[in-house]
Each structure stands twice: as C-alpha cells, then as structure tokens.
C-alpha cells in the first residue's frame, strides 16, 4: 500500500520537474505515452477516496489497514493472492476478467459478518478456492455483500455437506451479473448456493455430484421477498447433479425469467428445476434437459413437490434415458394445492398427481399443449436461440397478466410485456420498433406508470403521439438505471424523459440519498446522450408523505432540494428541465388538492396538466 502511494507521488513530482518552459516533456518516452501516463496519475490524485492497487501489492494487507478517507480500491489487471476479507463500506473494483483473485488453499473471498452498508466487489475473476467440508470455496458473502460482474470459476467445495462451490450467499446478499462456471460442490449448489438475491447471471457447467442443484440452490426463508430467496433473469445451462441438475428451490422462493437449458440429472430424476417448498415460478423457458437415471423419474424437467404457483412457463424438448423428447414428462405436479396458470408443455407433457384437483385448492387454467416437433416456434431451436417466432401464436400474449414488480425485462433484455399480456416463456416476442425508432420514451416510477392506465390515466395520449411509456410502479432510480437498455434504448428514441426519485426519498425500505438520486439521473442522462437522443429531466412531484423515523429531513424538503439539484444539472449540461412540480406544489411542498388521487399520484386532472407541460417541452419531436 505505502509503495503504491509513494510511487504515485514520485511520478507526479518527476513529471512536474521535467516540464520545460515551452510545455514539452524531457523524456526518451514518446510524447503520447508520457501524457497518457501522467493524465492517469493526475486523475487518481484528484480523487483521494480511491486507492489504486497494482499487481505485486499485498491486497490482503491493504484491506487489513485501510488508510483514512479511502472508500474504494481500484485493482489493476494481474493476479492477487488471498485469502481476502471484505471490509464494510470499502468497495473493490477490478479491471475485468484479467483481475484475478485466487489462493494457494482455502476460500478466496469472505465476508465475516453482516454489513449495515452495502459493499460491492465487482469486475473480478474469483478462482482457485478449495474448501473441505465447508461452503463457498470461491466466495462467502452475507447481508449487504454484493458480487457484481464477476467471473467465479474453478472453485471446489469438497465433503459430504459442502454447499456453493463457486459462491455461498446468505440472506440480504446480492449476486448480480456474474458468470459462474466450472465450480464443484459435493452436496448442493455446484455453482452457487443463495439465500439472497441472484439476478442477471449465467450459471453453467457446474456440478453438485452427490445431491442437488448442479447449477444453483436457491434457499428461501419463511417468506420470499425481493431480496431473499429470489432469482430472476438468469441462464442456467450445462450443469449436472444427482438430482435437480439445473436448479433446486427450497423453502419459500420466487424465480422468474429463467432459461434452464441442457442440464443433466445423473441418478434421481429431475434435470431442470426441482421445487421442495412453496415456490413461485414465473415466465421460465425449460428446454433440452436430460434425466440420465436408469429408471427415469416422473419428470425430466420441472418437478413440484409442494404447493406453489407456476405461471407462464414453457417446457419443450426435455428427455430422459427411457423416453425421448416427444414422449417424456415435461412437468410433474406432486402436490394437490399447486396453482398452474397459462403454462405450455409439449402435448401430453404435463402430469398431475392422483390427488390433484384442478377445480379445488389447486388451479389448472389455460394450459397450452404444443404439438410434438413444433420447433418452428423458436427462432433457432438447434442453435439455442429460444426467442419466439410468429409461429408461436399459442404463446404470444397468452401469459397470465400478473407479474412480479421486478419483471420489466425478459431474459434477453427486451421489454417484458408488449401487448395485452406477457408471452409464455422467458422471452417476449420481439417488439416491433420502427426503422427510425420512436419519437419519445418516458421512464419513471408509478407517476408515469399510471399515466397510460385505464381509468385515472390517459392511454390515448400515448397512442396519439406515438410515445412509449416505460414507467414501473414502485421503482427507485437505481432500478430504472438497471433496466435502462431494455426499457428505453431498445426503442431507439429521439427523446427520453427521465422521472423518478419519490420512492428513493420517501420510502423507508430504500431511503436513498439525494446524491444517489442525482447520480442515477446523471448516468441515465449520459446513456441517453450517448445514444443520440435528446435528454429531458423531469422534476420530482410533490407528495404528502410523513417524515420517516430517523430521517434528517422531511420528504417535502428532500424533494425541493433534489429538484434544485436536478434543475442545475440540466441547465449545466444543456438538457431540458421539465417542471411539473411548480404546477402542483403548495408552499410547504405538499400536493395541491384537486390534482392528486392519494397525495402522491396525479389524478385525471393532474395528468391533463402534465400532458400540456410535456408537449410544450417536447415541441416538434412528437406530432
């Protein structure tokens, strides 16, 4: 650590002393290379909260003695030998897959206690961990520990009770955008074992040799939530285990938008997903999984052993040692209280337990039988592209309309719902986008989401002006940023209106700072500008929410101050600031009567006013 700081300072001094009066650099190094190096160093010195760590530095020792004022570490490419311990509040970011964390023996990365502050390790390769009769050979994370955009591979958890070969994650943890491959756990969760949240991951070619969850085991608690026992928008393929070759669900869990492909059960039956608990399984595509057991079980793909809800799932082409894909059971329901809604299997592929009563506590509604040999419903079935084609009319807009709040994108990153209902399976039929794109896209929370709803909103306003509304109720600005590519840029807009912040600033569960809201607005604005679209920054509307316990300021004060920041940012960058707030706010920051339905959301009169303001701001961008 000291070596790095001294080296940076010395280089800066050497550069200063070497400058001539004409501005030239006295050096044998080519001028372009010299300038690049110095620029990098000056940038680092300008941010005193970031410490750069280069190959050869003792990263473990640095983590054990973080200098005062440092908030994050930036690792160069190279290999760093651990083991490493996560430090609360110190984010660590690598340079991609070439920044390698490894160990000679033991676990690579560990979070030893729950954190109060979200702490992220990102853009790293985590490999070489080896544990005996213990969990999480690659990484072991707990509450508020986050692994993001990491490659977690070739880790081994040996021993009869070992779980999570690549990573073991407790409640309140997050595994986000990681590629988890070629890991081994003897017991459960070859790639990962998670009690927290898993999203946007690819989990492939892992093994849980002696038990369940070759790819992953998702372990829920007494109740599922958006942060525990949850997995969505993930691809699980090519994994193997004795049972549940792809995914094992245990306890109360919820999973959505999964592609479960080409996994193998070696001995006990279920090759795709096995649910031992109260599970909600929504919009999954489960294909080409294989049951290799000598005596094939009841299902080669999806087996439900307790009550739960299965909606909008597509099962096709799964097989077993005893039966080919045209005759094997695709989905087996072994509990009388399971709800089945708007699912599709190969014709004859659904099998129900003898005690299942489709008209009683269980529900079997709108099941779709797909004729055997109907691979034309997929874009490229043999090549592994399971997007739907126009031949899949039995699946398009045929899903159950009730979706989880986070289901705004399909597994491929396209908008999840287009049309009267979501499609069955993990992929939405491609939304037709005009060659020149749409004039305008709105992205926001429920303020925008309700704008085009029947009743209180005005759906005709959007169809008349060809505007796409990508508002989603309940979302924070961070969640909007996460879905920005699929919800906004997908439509190739000429203009984008950014709205949000109410949930960040007023909802106790999130309670994000105004600085975080502004940072998310800036990032979304940058993405918009880089795409060539014009940026419009919406004010946050007033609200009548009360001050939350422990808050430093009232929601009204936070909204007023944040709007000032948003307006200043827009003016500085040359963006258009759309001031809805002034038309609706009382002097104390509450919502004027006669324009809201509940103190937070506009009513029909309110949306009339917003439409006039928006059209004036957009000018000739829309008709």
Q: How would you describe the oligomerization state of the chains in this entry?
A: single chain
First-to-last CA distance: 60 Å
Structural class designation: alpha/beta
Helices, by number, come to 12
Report the β-strand fraction as a percent range. Answer: 25-35%
Query: Mean pLDDT, as a whole number?
Result: 88
Helicity level: 10-25%
Question: Got a strand count?
Answer: 49
Largest sheet: 23 strands, parallel
Shape: globular
Q: C-alpha Rg, in Å?
A: 27 Å
Structure report:
There is one protein chain. The protein is 19% helix and 28% strand. Helix 10 (555-573) links the parallel strand 48 (534-538) and strand 49. It has a 23-stranded parallel sheet that branches. It is α/β, with parallel strands linked by helices and 623 residues long. It is globular, with a radius of gyration of 27 Å. It has twelve helices and 49 strands. Helix 1 (2-18) packs across helix 2 (31-46) and helix 9 runs parallel beside helix 10 (555-573).
């Amino acid at each position: 650590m000291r070596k790095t700081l001294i080296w940076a300072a010395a280089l800066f001094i050497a550069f200063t002393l070497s400058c001539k009066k004409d501005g030239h650099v006295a050096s044998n190094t080519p001028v372009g290379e010299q300038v690049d190096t110095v620029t990098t160093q000056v940038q680092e010195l300008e941010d005193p909260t970031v410490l750069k760590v280069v190959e050869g530095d003792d990263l473990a020792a640095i983590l054990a003695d973080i200098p005062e004022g440092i908030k994050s570490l930036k690792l160069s490419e190279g290999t760093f030998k651990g083991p490493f311990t996560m430090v609360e509040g110190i984010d660590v970011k690598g340079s991609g897959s070439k920044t390698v964390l490894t160990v000679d023996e033991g676990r690579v990365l560990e979070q030893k206690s729950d954190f109060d502050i979200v702490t992220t390790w990102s853009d790293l390769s985590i490999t070489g961990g080896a544990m005996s009769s213990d969990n999480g050979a690659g990484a072991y994370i707990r509450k508020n520990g986050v692994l993001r955009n990491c490659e977690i591979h070739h880790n081994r958890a040996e021993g009869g009770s070992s779980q999570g070969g690549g990573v073991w994650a407790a409640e309140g943890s997050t595994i986000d955008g990681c590629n988890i491959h070629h890991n081994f756990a003897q017991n459960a969760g070859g790639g990962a074992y998670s009690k927290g949240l898993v999203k946007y991951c690819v989990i492939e070619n892992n093994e849980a040799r002696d038990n369940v969850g070759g790819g992953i085991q998702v372990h829920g608690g007494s109740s599922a939530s958006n942060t525990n026992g949850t997995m969505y928008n993930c691809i699980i393929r090519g994994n193997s285990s004795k049972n549940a070759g792809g995914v094992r669900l245990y306890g109360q869990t919820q999973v959505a938008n999964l592609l479960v492909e080409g996994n193998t059960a070696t001995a006990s039956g279920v090759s795709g997903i096995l649910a031992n608990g109260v599970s909600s399984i929504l919009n999954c595509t489960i294909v080409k999984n294989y049951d290799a057991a000598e005596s094939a079980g009841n299902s080669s793909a999806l087996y439900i052993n307790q009550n739960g809800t299965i909606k909008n799932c597509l099962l096709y082409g799964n097989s077993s040692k005893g039966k080919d894909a045209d005759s094997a059971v695709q989905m087996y329901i072994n509990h009388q209280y399971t709800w089945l809604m708007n699912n599709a299997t190969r014709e004859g592929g659904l099998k129900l337990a003898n005690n299942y009563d489709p008209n009683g506590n269980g529900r079997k509604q709108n099941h779709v039988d797909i004729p055997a040999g109907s691979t034309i419903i997929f874009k490229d079935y043999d090549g592994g592209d399971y997007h739907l084609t126009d031949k899949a009319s039995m699946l398009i807009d045929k899903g159950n309309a009730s979706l989880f709040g986070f289901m705004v994108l399909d597994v491929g990153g396209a908008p999840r719902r287009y049309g009267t209902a979501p499609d069955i399976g993990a992929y939405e039929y491609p939304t037709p986008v005009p060659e020149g794109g749409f004039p305008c896209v709105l992205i926001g929370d429920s303020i925008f989401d309700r704008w085009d709803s029947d009743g209180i909103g005005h759906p005709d306003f959007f169809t008349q002006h060809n505007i796409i509304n990508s508002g989603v109720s309940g979302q924070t600005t961070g969640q909007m940023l996460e879905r920005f590519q699929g919800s906004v840029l997908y439509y190739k807009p000429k203009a984008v209106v950014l709205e949000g912040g109410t949930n960040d600033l007023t909802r106790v569960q999130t309670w994000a700072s105004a600085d975080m809201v502004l940072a998310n607005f800036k990032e979304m604005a940058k993405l918009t500008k880089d795409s060539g679209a014009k940026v419009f920054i919406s004010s946050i509307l007033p609200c009548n929410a009360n001050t939350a316990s422990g808050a430093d300021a009232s929601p009204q004060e936070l909204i007023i101050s944040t709007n000032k920041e948003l307006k200043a940012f827009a003016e500085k960058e040359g963006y258009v600031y759309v001031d809805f707030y002034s038309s609706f706010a009382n002097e104390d920051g509450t919502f004027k009567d006669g324009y809201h339905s509940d103190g937070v959301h506009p009513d029909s009169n309110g949306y009339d006013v917003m439409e006039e303001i928006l059209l004036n701001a957009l000018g000739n961008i829309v008709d």
